[in-house]
Write a structure and sequence with these properties.
Strand content: 25-35%
Distance between the termini: 97 Å
Shape: elongated
Radius of gyration: 32 Å
Number of helices: 5
CATH superfamily of the largest domain: paralog of FGE (formylglycine-generating enzyme)
CATH class of the largest domain: Alpha Beta
Amino acid sequence: MEKKITKGIYEYGISLNSRISSMILIAILMGLFLIACNDYHSRIVDIQSQNVDNINVTSVEVLATITDIGEGGISNHGWCWAISRDPTIDDDKIDLGDKNQTGGFTVTIGGLTPATTYYARPFVSFDGQTKYGEELTFTTLGFQIETIFVSGGDFQMGCTGEPDDCPSDEIPAHTVTLDGFYLSENEITNGQYADFMNKINAQANGSYDGIEYLDIDDDDCQISHNGSSFIVDVDKEDFPVIEVTWYGANGFCEFYGGRLPTEAEWEYAARGGTNYTDNYLYSGSNTIGDVAWYEGNATSTNQVGLKGVNQLGIYDMTGNVWEWCADWYSDTYYGSNPQTNPKGPSSGTVHVLRGGSWGNYAVHCLLTNRNDNYPNYSTNSYGFRLYLPD
């Protein structure tokens, strides 16, 4: 009896130890498997930073390539950035969503602060973790254009006189609601435009990517190319740029993080914004000579900012040069345009110009007067100013 008990205990002890050993072995194998899985994922999911391109005042393009995604793809990818090193997805970022194949992707980062150094990293997210590419560094360009804030609001756009006394393309007068925005205090000058052309490495003939920005061959153009860079004629640095096409005006504005103002934004600012009820004929006055260079007091363009300002502190919205607007022109648009932040017709052949110029009679410089021309056209009385979003 005693032997059997001893043998039974011995046999039971062997069985218990074997089970414990098996459980320990399984646990070890599972741990090794999990470690291998983690190593597998971190090893095969890979993203590489490529380069920074098109650095502007408030925006930049960044390029990365996902070289391997392993099995199962990735749940998210994109770029993150900050003004301190090693940015993460907890900082500013652009999410591009899931991805099931390798390849490059480009992101335009906007809303940046001028003359500021940033750090950016691409990222991929997968299986609850995030992996980052190499950090890239860039510094946005400086910004030296004075702007005025224009508070948003409602105003009456168009000719408010008797319909029979109004040009047909200025009626019906209608209420328009606009968000706030910034507008350059002055028309863009020769100095500012020549600097822009040098920064984008425009061609010596005034073109960029095969599109004419500036008719540099015209005798009236006050910017020339000396074989290595664009330069401004003596004493013309602060005169409004002329001989600029719509493409050239729009290219400048986009480079500096903005655009051309819409026709509605232009008229609202010219009327003094929320002071539009003053109902001036010209921008800031009923007496054109107080605020404008026009046919009655000028034979060419004049330095910006010499005449009186309007209610917002903006110069030369009447006279000196016609100003390109973003909109396509339509002589019937006022009868059907949207009432909130209108952008103009969806298509067209000519773009809007507003404000009149040094070569026009007073009637052509009225706040409501509309002009138009082809986007590739330029002359010695066409210029523009810059719009920036709030």
